[in-house]
Q: What sequence folds into this?
């Protein structure tokens, strides 16, 4: 066995020790003379016009992102502080859009319709391309099958999917399920809502036909027991049930009436009369706190109602799609298309963004969403406002409105990760 001699080892140790001290001193000197630029942020969005309604920002601002959250928002942030820089010059940057009326409980039940059926959509392909990062499935699942919806859809997709539980236990399976008062159980509905507070944000009734108010009374009772808002998609009756009674007597402040520009057919009253005059109670109900949601859908929006109402000063509180298999192929198309309609009907861009981000987040009591405050999850949409001559339809083959402006989503981030990039804002040229 070969061993080191103590007389040789000691001088070697001394030399190594001196070299270590010298190296450390050299590192300290060089480090102070030539400091390395620390990349403090993962992504920096520069040069865009930021619209953040919660924080009253409507001007050019840079946004820095770190670990999936908004880290810094200020007029100018140096590019060398970020690992990746996105040039948003000429574009509008806003919080990820919040669509509070969608149908996403998709499945293979041939009789399921919007409850584990063919009419609902896998969300990711119809959210991220349009800047939407949060959706609320409205009524697809009831208390009987919400757990299936959660495990089958909510837990498996990238989009943040919240839910309004149907007052009908079996959910939105169409007739005869939606006409079954015996399956409208406020106690069980509220119990399941309280069981899943991170996912369930409200309760909905839809499509009930008849002159009684019991379906609305049970809905509101469930909302009170669950301490959450309710949404009404009015059913049909001949003559129609009174909107004034619904708004002024049945619903509570904070409750939601969807399809605000629909009606006038299918046994439902419109918010304007046959002469296009806004009914006198409509503004008073909104001032009382009733939330007016667009819920465009396939046949739940009409220019003959929307344009006169808006000319008389009415504005929807929330802009939503009511996206499902047929509405995306009809006049609705997508969230950007619906927003564009209102941009051309008299709302300014800030109002449109507000009704698509911060207001819906407040309506569903999710104040952590719909804004870009430091510390918030970095859900972001980067929008382009195109100018030209564009046509917008109510429903395929029916009324058309021409408009000068059209919104197009360029890029979507979910929790600080790019999930949609239309024109390669984050990409380098292939030959560089």
A:
């Amino acid at each position: 066995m070969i061993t080191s001699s103590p007389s040789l080892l000691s001088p070697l140790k001394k030399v190594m020790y001196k070299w270590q001290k010298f190296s450390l001193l050299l590192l300290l000197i060089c480090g102070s003379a030539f400091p390395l630029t620390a990349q403090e942020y993962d992504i920096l969005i520069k040069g865009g016009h930021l619209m953040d309604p919660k924080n009253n920002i409507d001007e050019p601002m840079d946004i820095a992102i770190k670990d999936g959250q908004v880290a810094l928002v200020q007029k100018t942030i140096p590019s060398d502080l970020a690992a990746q820089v996105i040039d948003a010059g000429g574009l509008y940057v806003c919080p990820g859009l919040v669509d509070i009326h969608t149908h996403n409980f998709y499945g293979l039940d041939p009789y399921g319709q919007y409850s584990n059926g063919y009419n609902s959509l896998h969300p990711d392909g119809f959210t991220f391309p349009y800047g939407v990062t949060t959706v609320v499935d409205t009524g697809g699942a009831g208390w009987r099958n919400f757990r299936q919806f959660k495990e089958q859809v909510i837990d498996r997709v990238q989009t943040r999917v919240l839910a309004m539980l149907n007052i009908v236990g079996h959910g939105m399976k169409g007739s005869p399920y939606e006409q079954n008062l015996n399956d409208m159980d406020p106690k069980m509905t509220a119990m399941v809502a309280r069981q899943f507070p991170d996912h369930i944000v409200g309760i909905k009734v839809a499509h009930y036909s008849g002159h009684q108010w019991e379906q609305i009374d049970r809905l509101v009772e469930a909302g009170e027991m669950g301490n959450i808002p309710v949404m009404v998609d009015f059913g049909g009756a001949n003559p129609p049930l009174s909107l004034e009674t619904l708004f002024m007597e049945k619903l509570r402040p904070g409750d939601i009436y969807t399809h605000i520009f629909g009606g006038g057919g299918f046994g439902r009253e419109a918010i304007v009369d046959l002469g296009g005059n806004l009914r006198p109670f409509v503004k008073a109900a909104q001032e009382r706190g009733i939330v007016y949601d667009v819920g465009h859908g396939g046949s739940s929006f009409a220019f003959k109602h929307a344009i006169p109402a808006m000319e008389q000063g009415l504005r929807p509180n929330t802009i939503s799609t009511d996206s499902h298999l047929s509405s995306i192929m009809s006049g609705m198309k997508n969230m950007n298309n619906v927003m564009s309609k209102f941009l051309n009907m008299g709302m300014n861009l800030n109002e449109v963004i507000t009704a698509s981000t911060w207001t819906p987040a407040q309506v569903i009591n999710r104040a952590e969403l719909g804004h870009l405050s430091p510390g918030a999850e970095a859900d972001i949409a980067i929008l382009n406002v195109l100018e030209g001559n564009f046509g917008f339809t109510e429903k395929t083959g029916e009324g058309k409105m021409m408009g000068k402006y059209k919104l197009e989503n360029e890029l979507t981030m979910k929790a600080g990760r790019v999930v949609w990039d239309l024109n390669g804002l984050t990409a380098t040229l292939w030959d560089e």
Remarks:
- The longest strand covers residues 400-414.
- The two ends are 59 Å apart (CA to CA).
